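Re-run with default settings, no changes from the original entry. Doing this only to confirm the output is reproducible before filing.
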Amino acid sequence: MYRAIILAGERAESQQQNELLKYANAEAKSLIKIKDRPMIVYILNALMQSNLIEHIYVIGNPLLLEKSSELQELLRLNKIEFKPQKTSPVESILSIFEEVEEVKDNSKIFITTSDNVLIKKEWIDYFLKMASGSGKDILIGVNNYKNVKAKYPESRRTVLKLNDISLCFCNLFAIMNSNCKEVIVLWKKVERVRKNPFKMAMMLMPLYGLILFALGLLTSDNALNIMSKKLKINIGLIIMPFPEACIDVDKIEDLILVNKILST
């Protein structure tokens, strides 16, 4: 069984986010309404439908509770718990990780975000079943960009181009055991240098891996093997067969596309 974390905290304001909130007439990203329901409600409903999820943590600004009666109603269920956001998403995840460790019930952790509004029970079950049978420590959900582009040519995604495949990252992650704690702590250090991509990359992958990537020779298997050795854990990718899985709401164009998908 898994404990789920929904990251619903507000990041530092950016022009893109300000434009999105103004366009949607919302006070917080998680409260942007799609078909008259806040985005975060879609994620909660999908998680509650999965029999693989035993408990759900919503991590966010208390403003969410003040402004959303729908969220207040859902939080009356024993399965859902609200936690105020920490100084960063990593700090928030660590706090839950430590709580789950204290429970000592072998619960694994599933992580997604409050703007992953298209998420469905079948995606969650597919991802978690694949994660459970993987033998890996950390699993990351991805889409094959070719399939996303074929179905949604108007969708602009961040793409990682490897030698064998181009990937779009989905906001789907699984932490399978306590081996991952040191990597979560490392990510705190990575966050501090996020404005320096080279330093960030060097913390996650040795130089020869970066050279292979720069030369277009790095395959997905090689990348996973190199990073796993560097970080001393087993990292796996789960390629999602649902092209919508990487479409979250980061900008106005995303919101328009999501409304279009949910209206068909």
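The longest helix spans residues 89-103. The chain has one domain: 2-262.
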